[in-house]
From TrEMBL:
Pfam families listed in its UniProt record: Hydrolase
Record-given protein name: HAD family hydrolase
Gene source species: Catellatospora chokoriensis
The keyword Hydrolase belongs to this UniProt entry's keyword annotation: yes
GO molecular function: hydrolase activity
Keywords, in A-Z order: Hydrolase
Alphabetized SUPFAM superfamilies for the sequence: HAD-like
Residue segments, region Disordered: 1-25
Lineage: superkingdom: Bacteria
Amino acid sequence: MIARPPGANRGRRHQTRQGLRSIDGDDTAKVETCHADTASVWIWIADARTGAPIRQPNRVLARRTSLAMEATVVVRSVVFDVGETLLDDTAEFGRWADWIGVPRHTFSAVLGAVTAQGHDNAETFQYFKPGFDLVKERQAREDAGAGEVIGDAELYPDARPCLRELKVRGLWVGIAGNQTTRAAALLRALDLPVDDIATSGEWGVAKPQPGFFERVTRFAPGEPHEIVYVGDHRDNDIVPAHAAGLRTVLLRRGPWGYLWAEDPPVVATADWIINSLAELPDLVRPLS
Ligand SMILES: [Mg+2]
């Protein structure tokens, strides 16, 4: 029997999803079914005492799509995107809003609208300052002592433990994202437990261009299907990495991760959709 509050389906598209498993070991609640729509993923559970339906949005772990049917996939390498995958971009977007003199909330809302229209993030600036030159302004920020900061405070709490655990388990671990050469230096200064770090600024090619993922296949050991690319972005990470033959993990966090976790192109091209990097080490194991 499906536990669902009155009116839960009104105005929303619901469908039962297969392949979801609960992480709760809580014997006071019983998983009844799973539902998803374009904006969120959750499980309805029935309270054991009252029977009342309870919505639990974060009890979904590692939804494996049809592309990865094995219990644990054997791979050689795991390569990570940077923004909203390893780093929380909140402060950096806030600094951009400050730099151009608009309220942070206004900047974020317009950024969301630009994303929803399918446009590149950089177009956000054009709404506030037509003709905005991102490269020049980034340099101006640095010259003014207000450049990007990448430190331990920007790392998501699950980032360093995940990288370390993958290394302990014998996987080659890399970082490759759309960042400047300066950001690459800042990332290296974090002394993360990884084998290599590279950025689009260093490679001269950026996501989602196929050339970026061709570089990833040379950057990381293994055949393309033995390399996992982990990211939060449908168009920059999951779809093009899949097209290059890589395994893909969509991390459901940050604006894009939440927005697109159930988007059909993501469901079709992501091997896994996860809520936390803590879930990742148990999904893959190294070639022995
Ligand atoms: Mg990202």
